[in-house]
Automatic annotation (TrEMBL):
Gene name in the database record: cysS
SMART domains according to UniProt: DALR_2
Motif ('HIGH' region): 29-39
The organism of origin for this protein: Turicibacter faecis
Lineage: Bacteria, Bacillati, Bacillota, Erysipelotrichia, Erysipelotrichales
Binding site residues for Zn(2+): C27, C206, H231, E235
Catalytic activity, reaction form: tRNA(Cys) + L-cysteine + ATP = L-cysteinyl-tRNA(Cys) + AMP + diphosphate
Domain of life: Bacteria
Residue ranges constituting the Cysteinyl-tRNA synthetase class Ia DALR domain according to the UniProt record: 349-410
Name of protein: Cysteine--tRNA ligase
Length: 446
C-alpha cells in the first residue's frame, strides 16, 4: 500500500511498526462550537482509512484528542455565562453525535487536555531543563533554533518565516518564531505551574497524548492541511527534542472543503453544520460526496454536487436492496457463492485504487461498475450463488466506504409490490412501473 507522506513529500510503501497493527492519531476538535461540514472531511476520510485497514485484517488503534481548554472556549463560556467545562461538554457531545450520525467508527480513546494537565506541565518543565525552552515573566517559549529540521513538514524555510514573523514581533521572545508552551493568564480557568498560573499552549497537547497513549512513535498522524503549519511543525519540533523522532512514520493531510468555491468560515456567514445538513439529506449521500474527491485535493460543496451524490446513492441503495430480494431464498438454502469474473475484477480495481494513496475517487468508479454489473445480472437471470457473490462484494465495498446499509426485512406486501414493479418493467408498462417505483421509494425499499 502506498501512502503520500507529507514529511518526505512522496508516496511510500506502508510498513507498520508492529505487525498487523496500525497506530493512528488525528488532531481532534476544539470544542467551542458546532462542527461544520468542513470539519467532517478529515473525520470521514480517516474513518475510511480505519475501515480499510480493518478490512485488510489490521488491528487499528485510533486515538484523537479533545481540546477542552482554549481561548475560544473561555470566550464562549463568558458569552454564554456558563463554565468552560459546560461549553466543552456541550460541543463535544454534538461532535460525537455527528460522528455517530455519519456512521464513523468510534475512536479507541479521546484524551482531554484537562485530564492530562500534569503530564503537559512535566513535559514543558523537561523541555526547559534541557534547554529547549525558556521561561519569561510567567510564559514559556520553545526555542526553535534548537531544531535543525524545523520547516521540514510544511516545506517552509526558517529565514522566510522569520521575516514574516518579525512584523508581529513579541519582544519577550528570543526569536520571533519561538512558540508558546505555557501562557500566563488570569482570564478564565487556569492551572498552577512552576511558572505561575496559566494554561498550556495547543501544540504540546498532541505530543504528550501520543506519548502517553502509544509509548513511542506511531504509524500515521493525520489532520487537515491547515494544521501542517504551525501546529504539526511544532509538534514535531518538541518530539525531536524530547523523544528523538518525528512522532509518526506517515504524516497525512486532508484538503479543504469550500462552499460554492469560497472558504467556509463563520466570519463569511456561510457555515453549514453537520446535523443541519444530514437532517435534510441522507448521511450516506453526504459521505459519497465527501469521498468522491481524492483526500489531498480540495473539495467544493455545491447544491448541484450534493444532488448528484444523492442520485448516485439512490442507485447503490436500490441495487443493494434488489440483491437482498433475490437472495431471500438463497440465504435460507445457504447457497454457495459462485465467483463472477467481472465483479471480481472490479473488486480488484477497487482495492488497487485504495492501495494507491487511498484514491477513493477511482474506488467509487469501481463501485458504480459493480452496480452496473448487478443490473446486467438481473436482466440475464443468473444463479443465486452469483447473486450472493455480488452481494458479498457490494457489502465489502460499502463497509469500507462506511455506508450504513442495514439489511431491510421486507414485509410480504413490500415483496409483492416489488414483484409487481419488476413485472411492469418487463411488460414495458411505464406508467404502472413509475407509480410502483414511487410507492417502493416511499417505503424505502428501493
Ligand atoms: Zn495535534
Amino acid at each position: 500500500m502506498l501512502i503520500y507522506n507529507t514529511y518526505t513529500r512522496q508516496k511510500e510503501e506502508f510498513k507498520p511498526i508492529e505487525e498487523n497493527k496500525v497506530k493512528m492519531y488525528i488532531c481532534g476538535p476544539t470544542v467551542y462550537n458546532y462542527v461544520h461540514i468542513g470539519n467532517a472531511r478529515p473525520v470521514l476520510f480517516f474513518d475510511l482509512v480505519h475501515r480499510y485497514f480493518n478490512y485488510l485484517g489490521y488491528e487499528v488503534d485510533y486515538v484523537s484528542n479533545v481540546t477542552d481548554v482554549d481561548d475560544k472556549i473561555i470566550n464562549r463560556a463568558i458569552e454564554e455565562e456558563v463554565t468552560e467545562a459546560e461549553i466543552a461538554k456541550k460541543y463535544l457531545e454534538y461532535f460525537l453525535e455527528c460522528n455517530q450520525l455519519l456512521n464513523a467508527l468510534p475512536f479507541n480513546k479521546m484524551p482531554k487536555v484537562t485530564e492530562n494537565m500534569e503530564e503537559m506541565i512535566d513535559f514543558i518543565h523537561a523541555l526547559v531543563e534541557r534547554g529547549y525552552a525558556y521561561a519569561v515573566e510567567g510564559d514559556v517559549y520553545f526555542r526553535i533554533d534548537k531544531v535543525r529540521e524545523y520547516g521540514q513538514l510544511s516545506g517552509k524555510r526558517i529565514e522566510e518565516l522569520e521575516v514574516g514573523a518579525r512584523i508581529a514581533e513579541d519582544s519577550k521572545k528570543e526569536n520571533p518564531l519561538d512558540f508558546v508552551l505555557w501562557k500566563k493568564t488570569d482570564k478564565g480557568i487556569t492551572w498552577d505551574s512552576p511558572w505561575g498560573a496559566g494554561r498550556p499552549g495547543w501544540h504540546t497537547e498532541c505530543v504528550v497524548m501520543i506519548q502517553k497513549e502509544f509509548k513511542g512513535k506511531i504509524d500515521i498522524h493525520g489532520g487537515g492541511t491547515d494544521l501542517q503549519f504551525p501546529h504539526h511543525e511544532n509538534e514535531i519540533a518538541q518530539s525531536l527534542c524530547m523523544h528523538g523522532h518525528s512522532i509518526a512514520n506517515y504524516w497525512m493531510h486532508v484538503g479543504r472543503l469550500g462552499l460554492n468555491n469560497e472558504k467556509m468560515s463563520k466570519s463569511l456567514g456561510n457555515v453549514i453544520n453537520v446535523k443541519d445538513l444530514i437532517e435534510k439529506i441522507d448521511a450516506n449521500a453526504f459521505r459519497l460526496f465527501m469521498l468522491s474527491v481524492h483526500y489531498r485535493q480540495p473539495i467544493n460543496y455545491t447544491e448541484e454536487n450534493i444532488q448528484l451524490a444523492m442520485k448516485e446513492w439512490q442507485k447503490i441503495k436500490t441495487t443493494f436492496n434488489q440483491l437482498h430480494l433475490k437472495l431471500d431464498v438463497a440465504e435460507a438454502l445457504d447457497v454457495k457463492e459462485e465467483k463472477v469474473d467481472a465483479i471480481a475484477a472490479l473488486m480488484q480495481q477497487f482495492t488497487d485504487a485504495l492501495e494507491d494513496d487511498f484514491n477513493t475517487s477511482n474506488a467509487i468508479t469501481s463501485l458504480y461498475g459493480v452496480v452496473k454489473e448487478v443490473n446486467k445480472m438481473m436482466r440475464a437471470k443468473v444463479s443465486e450463488g452469483a447473486y450472493k457473490y455480488a452481494l458479498m462484494t457490494l457489502q465489502n465495498m460499502t463497509y469500507i466506504f462506511g455506508f450504513d446499509l442495514k439489511k431491510k426485512r421486507l414485509t410480504s406486501e413490500e415483496r409483492d409490490l416489488f414483484k409487481s414493479w419488476e413485472a411492469a418493467r418487463k411488460a414495458k408498462d411505464f406508467t404502472q412501473a413509475d407509480a410502483l417505483r414511487e410507492r417502493l421509494q416511499a417505503l424505502n425499499v428501493i
